[in-house]
Fold each of these.
Amino acid sequence: MSASKTERLLNLLIALLERQRGYSKEELRSLIQPYREAATEEAFNRIFERDKEDLREMGVPVETFSEEAFFDADHAVKRYRIDRKAYRLPELAFTPEETAVLSLASRIWQQASLGSAAARAVRRLDVHGALSDGDSPIGIEPRLRTAEPAFDELLKALTGRYPVSFEYRAANNADTTTRHVEPWGLGNRFGHWYLSGFDTDRGGQRTFRLSRITSGIKKLSGDVSVPEEFTMRAALDALDPEREQGTARLLLRHGRAQSLRTSAVPASPKASVPEGWDEVQCPYSDVEILAEEVASHGATAVALEPAELVAAVVRRFQGALDAAARTPPSYTLPAAAASAGHKKTSSLDHLPRLLDLVSYISANPGAELGATAEKFGVSRAQLIKDLNLLFVCGTPGYGPDQLIEVHWDNDSIFIENAEEISSTVRMSLDEALSLVVGLQALETVPGVGERPALRSALSKLLDATGGEHGLHRSLAADFDARTTTAEVQALQDAVAAGETLRIEYLVSSRDEMTVREIDPLQVFAVNGHWYTEAWCHDKQAVRQFRADKIRGLERTGRTFQPPGGRSSEFPQSLFTPRETDQLAVLHLSPRLADLADQYNAERRCTLPDGSLIAELRLGTTAIIPQLVARHGGEVTVVEPPELAVTTREWLTAALAAYSEISKAGGLDS
């Protein structure tokens, strides 16, 4: 956002606060210089309407009202003002325990598009004096990501209450259809974001996974009315994958296919079991999901029943082999990973920061320049630019006694003549939602959701923001840990006590159970899974362990001290680069392009057909044949050539296992 626009918006805000009678559009044009300089009436109207909506989006309650006419023939004059009472953030005070959960709730969004809104919300509470010093650490760091391109536009549609349309890909094939939807809610579960709403084409409520939206979001005309009984959390509960639909029969190689054995039980064989194999049965809720898991084990797992499961697994192997036989596409990867570059400061960042800065200095006259810059997360030079901008803003008339005065002699900051904006501004809709939904998400976190401070902080925040008109019921996120609650709680306890644990851990890439002694350093959640970052005694290095792959856990009674000099920052990636890493270049179908984000692709390029070439850095390429098999032709190996050959041999052996079992009488021919 340019300094000139910030200046214009700030002067408009001060003018609308300055008098209860407000101003007409014509009066504002005569008062504020950039409006006077607009080339035409149409240009002025366009700028003014955009500025008005920008202020409203920031949470500023700009009112439009009509002044009574003096004569019958008069037309009422439309005027604008800001309700001072609605503008100000109500008095709030949080205990140290409540401050801790609020801080944690804001950090949930650090890797998501609501991250800046959450950071602004906490800063505003801090400036307001609502937070306590010395918040107590909780010892757990859950995170949400919003990598799906459709998220931001759908959030706007949800808060703006308007219908949308988009292209949507079916779950089990590549077919896409145009869907017309009235958005009711957005939610995250199992590491994925979902949209729930009324599908006008199908005439009923439907839920859509955002990663399957293949187009931009088109805004449609009309208004959306959300049923009073709707909650996004209930819509997420309906996605529960635990609903059992059937039982599958499998053959597993002795001592192999460990992940399938977790939910399997020995079966009563219907035919003689080939030597070296175990026959088991396991429940499933979705044939295609189970087919992915069985296929990922290659020649060490064979599906026997039901017939549709067998067909789904064989289809994946054959599809992957057919795709591998085709000539790879031509491509050119960029010389280096694309940089996000410098993110421009937006109107949702710069003006709110200035308002918070004025509130903070007004409440803390003489605040030190360097400490203030650090508090607001900006450089010393940027803070001075912000202070200089305040010099040219003030109440209408803009004379010497009406402009804001700022001094920072001896690095101590003082602000005068800023009474109109010295009070802390209320939170914007996205700021309030980020904290409210963050707190609600923490209710699903083992060891945190039961804390009384969580409920009391949420209650205070809802009271202060007016419940945001019920929108907090339309946005939800779950850190669903029902299958790993005991492990997550035990890991949290070990972090708090500094106790070494002995775990039995599944290494999926080797299909091997290992026994490790670990010193848990922190517990965190990302992409729908819980992890612990821990010192591994076996590897003599820090490693990350996924909670649902821990098959056994016991306390040792021994305590440890965390390694010196270690950062307590949340891991920005689940992958730690090492000298022994291997590179693999994959071709991903348009449907699976988001795999590049899941595997933190080093480089990527999009092909004309929408598919993607992605270069991955991996600790081992042993996982690549498993990944290729899961997706049956939608993921192929491009480089290195030897990995492509190894993958084809792995797939051929897996398909051959079905022929061998069929000949032995284990499969119906």
Amino acid sequence: MGILTGLLATILVFFSIWRLDHHIDSRLALLESPGTPLYSDTYLVSPGEKIPLWLLHTWYAPSEEGPARFPWKKHTLVLRGLPGPDPVPKASGAFNATFYYRLVFDHRNQTLLGIFPEGVSPDGPPPSLPGLWLPPVFMGTLVQTVVGDFRPVALGETSKKLRTTILTSEDRRFYDHPAIDFEGILRAAWADLRSKSFREGGSTISQQVVKNLFLSPRKTFSRKIMEAIYAWRLTRLRTPDEILSLYLNHLDFGSGAHSRIIGIEAASERFFGHPAKTLNFRESALLAAVLRAPSRNNPFRDPDQARTVRNRILTSLYQAGKLSSRQYARDRRSSLGLSSLAYRTSRPGPYFSDWIAHEIRNHPVRDKNGSSFVFTTLDPYLAHRSEKIVTEELLRLARTWRLSFRPHDGEGLQAAVIDMDPRTGSVKTLIGGSDYGPSPFNRAIFAKRQVASLFKIVASIVALTPSGGQKPPYTLASPLSNAPIRLRAGGRIWKPKNAEKVLEDQVLFQDAFVHSMNIPFLHLSETLSPQEVVDTARMLGLETPPAARLPLSWPLGVLPQTPMAMARVFSIVANGGRDVQPEGLPDPGRKPGRRLLDPGVDYLLNHLLRLTVREGTGAPLQFWTGPQTFWGGKTGTSNRGRDTWFVAVSPQNVLVVWIGFDDNTPTRRTGSQMAVPLAGAILRNLPPPLPPGPPPPGIETKTVDARSGLLALASCSPDLKVIPFLSGTAPPAETCLSPSPPSIFERIGHFFGNLF
């Protein structure tokens, strides 16, 4: 019996080792691959467009076929592409374009003057093409679940000084010890004990490879045991040189100016502007310093801290006999030797790239594109312009309203921006913060914030939608109470107020929405079914508690949502009421979403949104779009301006803008003052929306009295409104009311309301 038990135990051990080795081999095959290149969508450039020549040169120079095909001549650039604007090609078609065109710029290299086929006859200037679809722009390499600047190289393509520095800093006995270095662990523990801080680690390079590339980062005892077992087997499956090469190629140097920096080759190019095979001891020590704490020791953000840690590593090299006294003294005094231009090399859409990596974590990329490349929906130039606008506008807003803004530290005022095609769900731009480098947290998809008055779109859908063959409970002309209201919440009495003083005791539904009044919508909410509200919100993709736990203040948007969730909601409204999912990878097999909103109700909602920009809280947008705009919109402002929102809506684009502080510091400003200016600056880069089409069947327009909402004759009062209704829902009879003039108290109230 004992022999049989021992035999079974032996078989089980060998089987476990075989399974572990198979898992490690499979993982290594993936890690040793060059990664998956990620590209933007194709995009159209036209004569007269302001697009800098240097930007196109930065995007395309590394991918073209040498200087003959890409001459760096004054005011001229030669690029591959497809004539436009029609037909619109697929990204893969523009990517594989074989014809070259000459792009001619103005004397400042900022405005495109003309597009001409390369090699045309010199007999007179040829006519310019109306447009050119340029190839997708390289955005980075997808490595596991991260998109970044990744350039794997063989170990022999790195300098010996670099390898010496890394081994001295991280694992001095790498070539002598097995997977675990007990002597190194004791030495690190003694050094930490003497310094009374955790300054050194005891993990070998093999353990670090396992920790970073095979296991989760959680610090638990069981994970530490697994780390040792994996490291032991890794040293049996790969030589020390292969393990060191894997380690160097997957080092994470944190977020650069426009993308994550992965691997020693990318780090050398981005920090110093030359390949890793030419790194000296001084540069290698700086990279080792960054490696220890990529954010804290980043030399572009804190050069003094980076220099201190670099010199500490140089001291270790000197004590180990790798540097002479003269060289050690010279390197300690030397500058950091950084290449600012290389570090800030522009890559479009870093937040968008992170979102793509997050989205395809569990989805094979080949299912989307059918190739080893990944083409996305990003508009690279719109993304580039929007990122610049976000930084400029946040700086202007911070100065205007005296708010904190420190973009180089990733602190202070922040923003999230999403531009989405509501017809397809294609996300054209996604920005998750003020500056990706110091603040890579993607607020556009992960930050849950109070959406304030944006949530009134849900209340409006419930109130205006017919149910069970019955008429809807409300129309746009329904009067809503504006009487002061008291609500008990959390054992305290809450007295909500409107953002603007409105003295009338009742207002029309349309006016309450357009001017974003809180009190009328709270009165409205008391008549709506909480279950219908929850069902409608969840149908639109929003997160809500069960109906029994729905807070009384739900119409004011106290339920936190992400900007991406709000982009989906307003895209459903913008596209005619059909379901749509935000997507960053084009799906040629996409089918139209199922209808979620009644076409007539959707028409009423878009009427409200356009009216909000024409005469409501979104009216400041006209400064950027002009008064005859067809944009719709909705503002939102949470308590004391902790969250400020604006959503611009058209059948072709939905733009969501959020501005606020990560720590909920009040801005004490409104969405009209904060989010609308940023949205307006971005909308200048988008084509103006087309005029709205005719209303769908079942819509009729009536003239009503602006105060009562009842049907009125033109001779009744000059204060009339033309309002659309679902057929059969307008007031039944014409009414001629003689509106009473405002009382003296109303006049005084209006006077002081206009002042304050």
Amino acid sequence: MAPSGDLAAAWAYRARIYLLCAAIFAAMAAVAPGFLTPGNLSSILKGTSANLYAAIGLTIVLIAGQLDLSIGALMTVGGMAAIGLEPKLGWPGAFAVAALCGLLVGAINGLLVTKAKISSFIVTLGTMTILGGAANLYSKGGTLFVSDFSFADRLDPAGLLFTPRVLLSLAALVLFALLLRRTSVGRGLYLIGGSARMAWYSGLPVDSYVLGAFMISGLLSALGGALFAASLNSANPSMGDRSLMPVIAAVIIGGTSMKGGKGSVIESAVAVLTLVALINGLSCLGAGFEVQQIASGAVLASVVAYDAWRAVRAAAVRGRRKELLAEFRDNDLTLVNEDDSITEENNSVEQRKDRTFAMACVAMVACVAIVAIYALSIRRPLGPLPETEPRTASASGSATSGAAAAAQADAAVMALKAIDGQPLISVDDAPLNAPPRPANPDALPLEDPMHWYDQEYAGWNVVRQNMPKSPGGPLAGRKVVCLRFMDHPYLTAYTRGMQKVADAYGIQLTTLVANNDINVQSQQVDQAINERPDLVIITPVDATAVVPLLRKLNQAGIPVIASNLMPIAQGTPYELTWTGPDDWGNTRMLAREFAKRMHYQGGYCIVRHMPGSAPFFSRTYGMVTELKKIAPKMVCLDMQSTGLEAEKTMQVVSDWITRYGSKLNGITSADDSGAQIGVDQAIANAHRPDIIRMAAGCSKVGMDAVKAGDLAAVTSQPAESDGAVPMKLAADWLSGKPIERPVYYLKKQLITKENVAQFQPAQW
């Protein structure tokens, strides 16, 4: 009979994912405020359901001994099909087409693996890439949107812990758990994953089973993406990209073997829940996305290391019979064979190796944990302003009246400077006089500026809905949450400017970063609603997908100011106001300078911003429409998005130079940092310094290039002011002052070689 300690260890190993889940929930409940509230638990469950379908599908494919890297792209395809076809087919028809797309792609993957005998890694990597391009082509790089919120409201009604969307994912989980454990098909998949040859000898149609596994994975991934997109009323070409790695990590943590023949969809689901709960709890603590990544990596590393250690131990003791060894000891039997001493020595060496490997695993996990704890400890709000800057008096130490203290704080904020010496609060106060709206802007050509009316003039004439009433009173101790769409040097400076204003008023600022993932930002909105701050400032991940999030905050009675990236017109009724750079105005101003430098003729190309973002359109068609009006002899040869990556931009620009030769006279870029590095490198490699270059933004890279004469001009987009202005407006509204304008633009300026010194050192 096995010792009780061995039985306990074996049980703990089998139940490790459940114990890990319980431990994380217990730890977060103890340290994270509001973690176990119904609203936050509902957010965790909805976050889990978003990736659960893909996790089930991947688990089935891995059990069959294969790999599917196309699950994220299939989520995108399912979402794009559902949102794009809903106006024509209705939700049932749109979901049916999404399911058929998933089945078709899964069948293609399965046939290439089983019939063409191509590695599943290569096949699904290829389909992932193709589907990504197809999604961009279908949506023209933008985000698809459905204006009717009724179905989304039924999928995720407010106030329910288990919403219909969560219940549907649980139903799928139970169905496929029964399929794997209670049917001959499921047992056949395990046998194939363990040994495909043995399964074939047993008479199983191995190819058919593998094909079916890929089709199930495709179906579930597409349906999961369709349901998630329906809950947001929108879909963009990259919505599933960030789901691939978390799903793979969760499935591995859940115990599914990459070699096949082992796994459980239930345990994969618990692992997805565990990771979502971990990230949610860290977010409740105010940890940044980098800390969340480290923590998730620590969990994955610890599970993999523990599994590897057990495998090494099992291999070391395989074939030994402990009961016989115990019998020898009990009877005091000794072996006099000369080999005994050698065997004993070998056993000792093996035990030392086991301990060494275990210690190495523990040390590795400990190092990761230490890094996570250190990162969490330094993740604090910026400290108070230096004593040389104006400060407000504390509530306890000030003898001035409330009105005088407020006036003093306002004066202090208006006197603040950015690191380049420019005023921190810098707003364009020009009148907002929009031209009459065309009857159908979408029917106009893309080169017609009126085609973009609803984007360029979004929010100018909007009627606000359900606006909460300002609480008025002192600002000290008020809580503001900033939902930032990603980590980037620009947004670091943005937060620095916001924090300066918050410190001056005594406002408590919490910043949550979505890492450019709309699923994460959706969960953060739920978290904000659960925590009930005094106001939310949001920089959208996506100008279209943010609309239901703004609506949700509005319905919860939480005032919201949108910032930096402007939502589409359907989202503006739910905001107090919007603040940020006037991208259309800046780009038109840049276009006029570009035309002047190009002598109003010649061919040009455009490096576009990230697909789905507002600058993707404004920094492209602001240029195209303005040049068509003022310089009809200038011709746009091509426009491409390069993800703002230097290497990819260099390749694209090199291709332009080769293809168009002397016809290419100018290039404008939506980004003067990473993308501009690629532009400059390609031009240097081709020895074409004659190409006129301009860009949006005022990074250190861009301004150094302007100073050196490589860039003719860049637009001024002061990052610190971009963050400071919404916080100033938040303070005004919270103290009872009216917000008078529907949008607040930063001042528009061009930076050229003549004035670049005024804007240095660069803010980012």
Amino acid sequence: MKQSEDYLQELVERLENGEPVAECVASLPAQEAEIVALIDAMHKLSFPEENEAVAAAQEAKLLAATQAQFSGGRVGEDDLPITAVIRTQIQTWLDQLPIPRELAYGLAAVLVMILFAVVWTSLSNRPGDGLPIQVETSTETIVEVVPTSAAGVVDDPPAIDAEQLAEQAEVAAIPPTPQGPTVYLPLMTSPLDFRAETAVIDNIQGIVEMQTDDGVWTAVNQTTTIAAGQLLRTGNLSQATLNFYDGSLANLSANTEISIDELNALRPENGFRTVVMTQWTGDTDHAVQFRNDGGSRYEVNTPTGSGIARGTKFHVMVTADLLTRYIVTEGRVDVTGAGRMVTVTAGKLSTILPETVPTEPAFNIAGEGEVEATGPVWTIAGQTFQTHEHMITVGNPQIGDLVRVNGHLLSDGSRVADRIVLVRRAIANRFTFTGTVEAMGAAWTVASQTITVNSGTAVDADIVIGANVQVSGMILADGTLQAKQIVLLDELPGHPFEFSGVVQSIGSDSWTVSGHTIAVDVFTGIETGIVVGDVVTVRGVILANESWLAGNIVLKFDALPTFEFTGTLNGMAPWQVGGLSFEIKPWTIVDPNLAVGDLVSVKGIILSDGTRVATNIVSLAEPINNVIVFAGTVTSMNPWIVDGLQLVVTDDTQIIDNITIGAMVSVRARLMPDGTWSVLTVRLLYPDFGQGCLTISSPVVAFDAGMIRVKHWHVDIKRDGRIHIKGNLKIDHVITVPLCTGWDGVTIIVGDITVIYQPVVIIINDGNSNGGSSDCRGSKCSNRGSNRGSKKSG
């Protein structure tokens, strides 16, 4: 084989040096001579420049052909494209050549490149090709092929008219939504069985399992399909999405189980859609393609009731004790339980308890904020919430913690909490700093600061006087620094990390934890008894090649998994550090002036579906020794006192934002040898978030050019030009309003107001008008005796 390769290389070099082809192949058999001639032709071939417009059109055609293959089954031999025929002929020809196999396949690649160039050139020169322009309306998607000029520039598209359909009953303000599937499938895989009778499972995170006809649960690790009669479930810190053939979606959160009962998700041009599933437990979110055909069905059953969607976005929650709640954000859902049906429109929710009828729909309120009071009445995000016997709390939230609250509004505007979930533990009075150990014992001295330790303090082994450590803990009421953790930083082979996640696979040299590959070696300490599906905490270092090496892996029992690591900032859209992606929220504390390439420290929490959310992103560009970072409430500004700690403010101190007494601030201070804390920066903890933000849904009762008044909020909403209104604002139209309460207690509007529901008024002819006619004044009319209770399927 070596001789053949050398001989071929010699021939190529002779060609490159300008020797005529005829002389180079004079002593070769005919077949080998033909190959060398092809190589010479390839060298002389001028590869055409790519035309982006034509390439886009060709890509669209390729995707359409692929989709047609998915929906139409396998392609017969008679229908094979010409490229497949040529490929078969080339393979047969190469098999007959008396040359090594490796060389044959290399030459095959050359031939494919030549064929691609020829096909590209021919397609690029075809007249009349155009780019698909998609025009969306509220009822259908129109695809128009628009001619392109010779330069590939799209000419002005023709005007397209589309009639807007409306239901003859209360309907939602349906946003423009394209019909048809929106799932994107990889081209270079085996074709999926994607059709009306199946749904594609993707967006797979954590532990996702499917039960087949034989009753066996099988892990789903890559995009696949599910059909009627099968079950799907997710584990801790996990999620998955079902993509139906008509474009509807269902997202499963953690610890959720559903069964597919009926499935025939036909597209509008093919007939009625039928999607029926049962949700046994957990949380799901649904985005249902709007249909106005009178026969389509999208139904989510639960052990206590059912909900039929009418072109809708909605959430379904089923608890362990079989409480069911339907929360509608767009459109409407007909909810049935114990023989009674209620219609839940956008912005409302309804709850079903076992063997009871659904509650009357109530307007929804949801958001995140700090807990200021607990008990029969909670204070969250600066607003009070009543409680009830069926209220759900997750994570045992305490005063100072950040929580997410979901609830409803009573007719008098008072708020009732239905579920409160811990998002982040209180950060006030918590500190972190790095320094050198100067003394150890019942009390430690680090960076000239006295640190108290107790039996609950986690201390790394091998720490000695003179070692460089990171200390984190609580600032007690008297100013004492109580250590929660002391981590050795000396001689680490990389940047430290710690995070919690669900175990997906266990190998001899690597584990997969919440989608992240973690290397293990003989020095990794692993707690016994860990199996796939367990939630664990992993500590280790990020090496120079950005691989993550575990130092120890232990079971995690905390209700709020966290992560913490140091690394290079790879990007901010989306955020990624050390190769690990995460999200930020309005309450994330981010150092100003960060740039890609900076060394940063990231701390955060992991939501129930496995999503990582950063709580703090701190720059490590400056020396970190003897610098303490903490958060607290400003109680004095002359002198500066934060949570009882007196701070030294100098001319070099940066005071960011408009800080007032009572505000929560983030402080970065240098620990001085005399024990004082010299402030480097002090800024509002999260100026745009304050105590918290809530979104309410409520009908409009009055409005003019300067204000909007809603039923469930007793303060007029000012229209000062900064607030945009999306939709047609009228009396009785339901809007969503995002509200945030600042540290000063003032509630402000922080985003756009959206019209999510507009009732259609139906006026009944009372029979007294002349000739049986009536003046409906632009509203929809119907005659007495018409079926006002009938509702079309969506």
